[in-house]
């Protein structure tokens, strides 16, 4: 951490050039600056990435930014705020603190927070930034989180860990056993220090694989932002019976929060009814699709599925649905001649359980992208390929 970066003239340079071209700045002589221009450009690029993702940091004066990779890997404020809403208590330790976004929000739910970060420079940056953000109940430790627990026999109400998915020798990995630190390997130690553990993993981790790698999983949260799954959150409770694992799905948007939950072990046995398309069509959000709660959606919301593998639902009565809702305007066979009669030349096309790609469908049907018409290319309960023409409701 180069403290001169925080000087008024250097901060002014950073703020004045947030929208400037980085290559141009690097080539232009800046005699008034007393810090290497490469360092300031790195600050500019990292700060720019925080404008929407970490607006609290972006709006706060004299924040020191790490490299772009640290910004890319950190939680967004939206997801950090959500995960902090799930837990509370007197004390929590973050074993893989990173840029400190999660700890910032944990500090609003806990009396004391310990932030462990093995990268000494990043730990120093985070400590400085917490001072600028006027956060006083976070202690920073420039050390490996697992080693910290081994050296300090303290107990905590909660342990939080976001294992790195970049392995030194294997590159990018997705199994927990391959992440750093290896959480399954250290579970005994973790449960000695706390009865409650919260783990953040890649959205690509298969739920069944994660359950098999871990112990005493109580709840799994699938967190999507604007219909893009961002992270999986695993709540572990000491001695919890894994036969009762709850799956919580959430899609966070600026206007609303869609929630849906179900018991993991009850999904396969949930009774499903099937129907040909009725008046309304529903498409689950990505969090539900990731969770695989397809039968539970049908049972809990009293909706009928179009096909076992289509994952589209229908009803005659409109309901508040955790995903997209549509009014069915027409139902056609997958046939260019039939579609041409409708006069549709532009539409948004989605495929569900359909042999052709969206690109091929556009070519075959001569349909441009966009507009207010939505077409679902799918398969019905009678295994007929069809096009469902819709208008979007939500």
TrEMBL record:
It comes from the Bacteria. SUPFAM superfamilies: S-adenosyl-L-methionine-dependent methyltransferases. Transmembrane segments: none annotated. InterPro entries: PG_1098_Fer (IPR054168), SAM-dependent_MTases_sf (IPR029063), Thump-like (IPR041497). Gene3D superfamilies: Methyltransferase PG1098, N-terminal domain (1.10.10.1110), Vaccinia Virus protein VP39 (3.40.50.150). Coiled coil: none annotated. Pfam families: PG_1098_Fer, Thump_like. Residues 280-322 form the PG-1098 ferredoxin-like domain. Residues 323-392 form the THUMP-like domain. This is Uncharacterized protein. It comes from Bizionia arctica. The lineage of its organism: Bacteria, Pseudomonadati, Bacteroidota, Flavobacteriia, Flavobacteriales.
């Amino acid at each position: 951490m180069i403290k001169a970066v925080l000087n008024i003239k250097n901060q002014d340079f950073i703020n004045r050039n947030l929208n400037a071209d980085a290559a141009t700045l690097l080539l232009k002589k800046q005699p008034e600056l007393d810090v290497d221009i490469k360092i300031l450009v790195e600050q500019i690029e990292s700060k720019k990435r925080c404008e929407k993702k970490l607006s609290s940091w972006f709006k706060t004066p004299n924040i020191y930014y790490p490299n772009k990779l640290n910004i890319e890997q950190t939680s967004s404020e939206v997801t950090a705020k959500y995960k902090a809403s799930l837990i509370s208590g007197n004390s929590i330790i973050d074993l893989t603190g990173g840029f400190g976004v999660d700890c910032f929000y944990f500090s609003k739910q806990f009396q004391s927070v310990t932030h462990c970060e093995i990268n000494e420079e990043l730990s120093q940056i985070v400590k400085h930034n917490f001072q600028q953000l006027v956060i006083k109940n976070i202690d920073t430790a420039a050390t490996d989180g697992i080693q910290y627990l081994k050296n300090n026999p303290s107990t905590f109400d909660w342990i939080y860990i976001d294992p790195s998915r970049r392995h030194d020798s294997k590159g990018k990995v997705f199994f927990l056993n391959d992440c750093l630190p290896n959480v399954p390997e250290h579970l005994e130690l973790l449960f000695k220090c706390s009865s409650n553990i919260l783990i953040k993993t890649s959205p690509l981790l298969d739920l069944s694989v994660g359950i098999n790698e871990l112990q005493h999983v109580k709840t799994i949260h699938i967190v999507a932002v604007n219909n893009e799954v961002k992270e999986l959150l695993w709540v572990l409770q000491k001695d919890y019976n894994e036969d009762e694992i709850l799956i919580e799905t959430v899609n966070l948007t600026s206007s609303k929060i869609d929630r849906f939950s179900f018991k993991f072990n009850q999904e396969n046995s949930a009774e499903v009814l099937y129907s040909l398309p009725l008046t309304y069509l529903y498409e689950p959000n990505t969090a539900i699709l990731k969770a695989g709660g397809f039968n539970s959606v049908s049972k809990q919301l009293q909706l009928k599925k179009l096909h076992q593998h289509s994952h589209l639902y229908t009803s005659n009565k409109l309901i508040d649905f955790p995903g997209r809702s549509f009014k069915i305007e027409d139902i056609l066979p997958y046939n260019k001649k039939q579609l041409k009669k409708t006069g549709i030349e532009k539409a948004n096309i989605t495929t569900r359980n359909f042999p052709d790609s969206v690109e091929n469908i556009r070519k075959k049907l001569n349909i441009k992208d966009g507009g207010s018409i939505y077409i679902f290319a799918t398969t019905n309960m009678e295994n007929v390929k069809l096009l469902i023409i819709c208008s979007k409701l939500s």
